[in-house]
Amino acid sequence: MAPLRLRSNGVGVNGRIDASINSDSIGAESEGSHAVEGTRGGEFPIGGEEPENLPPNSPTFGGYNPFNHHVPSPDIFEDNNAQDEWRNDYPDYSGGGQPWSPQADTQPIHDARRELFPDSPTEGEGQLFTFIYRGQTPQFDRHTKVNCIYVDHEDHYHFVFESSNHNKSRTMQRIIQAGHLDVHQNIPILSTLQPVINWDRFAAYLVRANSLTVCIGQKLLHYATNLKVIPREQRDCATLLRNDRATKTKFDNLKRKRRIDLMSELVEQSDTRTLNELKNALTYEDRKNLYAEHGQQWKEAAELCIEAYCEKLRREQESALFQHYIHHNNHTRICQHPRDLTRGLIWLDNLLTQNNIKKDDFLGDLTKVMNKTETRRNAFVIEGPTTTGKSLMLKLICDNYIYGTVQRSGDHSQFFLMNLINKSIALMEEPRITSLTVNDFKELLGGTPFDIHVKHQKDERLPRIPVLISTNNDLTFYCLSEDAKTIKARCFTYKFYVPIPSPELPLPPCTMCPCYFSAWYKNWLN
């Protein structure tokens, strides 16, 4: 008969053994039931002797087989509190005893590739750079800390590394030192350093001839792996993206030229000389076209086009004679487009007649000044009281030209002539010639080139330009008598003394514009 066995579940509070009878171990017949006493927990045969060599209060495991699977021990640090912020518990993928399998990758391959190989780095991250090395074979140490890729292209090597923009030179120097590159190649290497804009296209060029590719470090290992699967480019180093660059440059040039042509057309159409004149001349449709083509940079493009347009006009004016240039309408921005010029021509003749001025002398001397034919006389002066037509006459002449004005209080500033730079004519109203400025006026009115002061720049040479002056008082009122003679000897002077309006000389019959002076001058030539 099999002996009766007991399985101990633990020790009671009073030191007694709490035992339960294992029904599987009881046979049909049982004999000699014995009482169980003692304080040891464990399992031993009833009616037999306790196994020897067991420590006191130690469980015994003889008599049954151990578990054939792993039984985890309880975690003594386990609690039911909320998960801490620093602790990251990964989810249990055991599935309740079912074998776990990874979920299917539903992300498209090109999206994954775009994440792995972005076209351009985001702000704050590293950027790929490349340089060309021509020298001995690189020899990196086994435990080097640099990370780079280099590709052998027969007579040179292409290096690729990742770095921030402000640390690229330092990283490149570390690669040169770690690879034992030729130190004499530092300057050529620096001259070839450039960022990688498009990795896919650059990688296709790197593996064009199935060249040897070596990856140093683990940081760029995914780029080196990509070089094994990317399609090869058949062009050599001499034509690296040359055709693509030429095509793109041609397209950019055409696009840029179209934008500049649009701006130049608007400037020439309205005959504008300043940005403010262009703004006033633009229509709603013109502004929309400019915003669409140039965006917020349209003002900068407009200023450049206006500057180029004025420079073109100035060169034409300097190279053309006054009698030839005056035949054309060069004042579109202010032209009144009169249909009948007869009344205006009669009024101009009457203006000279009432002031006792011969038309031949007046226009003849004006032509000499404008054509710069006189050696020491370069100024045309009209004196007289106010409202006598002095400024009107000079404006009819100057509006056809690129002209500059001069400050009246020239003795208060040393830059009073700087506005005459890059101008065809100098227009002065009430100039103040004093002992401080008389020498500059001698040079200017005599037609001698001289240096003038310019703000925040070095002095510039002012060439000979015609000078037209209108003044209420004597031009040499503030000069000494000796200087006054020199100034007057350099001017053709005429006086207007009949006021407008007056019984002798009424107001102009219409709004006068340079068209009237041009027609008046043509009649005098004929």
Automatic annotation (TrEMBL):
Record keywords, A-Z: ATP-binding, Nucleotide-binding
Segments for region (Disordered): 22-60
InterPro entries: Helicase_SF3_DNA-vir, P-loop_NTPase, Parvovirus_NS1_helicase
ATP-binding listed as a keyword: yes
Keyword Lyase: no
Entry protein name: SF3 helicase domain-containing protein
UniProt signal peptide: none
Organism, scientific name: Paragonimus westermani
